[in-house]
Fold:
Amino acid sequence: MSLRVMSLAALLGLALGCSAAAAPPVAGTDYRPIVLPTPSTAPEKVEVVEFFSYMCPHCAHFAPLVAQWAAKLPKDVTFRRVPVGFERREWVNLARAFYALQVSGDFAKLDGALFKAIHDEHQPLFDQGALADWVSKNGGDGDKFAGAYGSFGVNNQTVQADQMAQDYGVDSVPAIAVNGRYYVLADASLGEDKFQHDLLAHTDAVIALVRAEHPAAAPAAAKPKGK
Structure:
């Protein structure tokens, strides 16, 4: 009888421990609702957006961590990055570079290298000429990049990105939003490493919150292959 009571107590303790680990995110601590929610670009999935800038040293440090995290996301979650300008010339120019690299076909090759060039090598890559020259010297298509950099399409994407950041209330980077409705929070005063890991942990919790709100959409990613 005593063993049975102890066993039940242990099971109860385990259940309580699991409940604590899976506790839902707290509004005002782990996230805040976005005042003007916007439709997701992937309505059939949970969309995660990272706001960043190549000029931001914290974003440079966060890039490898968030890339590893994003690579392990389930199939019902989509991830994309949005560069911010904050009305600063160098930041806006690098936001344009983000989209121009995609057009030139050099993004996968030079995305991480651009962070390194700015923050480790301290190269002044803040205008079209310097950026195009750097792209050419690093195995990219400098001419195609330069043409895309000044194009209407890239300009439009850059303007839309800044408008999106403004609508979401982004005032610092890196920042993460989920499904156009939730802005993920973490305490930067605890230090960069703690902040970044908490930001991703809170994002996971908010993703679970979105799934709970739309349970019909979640099982598709969880089904075993072949089912």
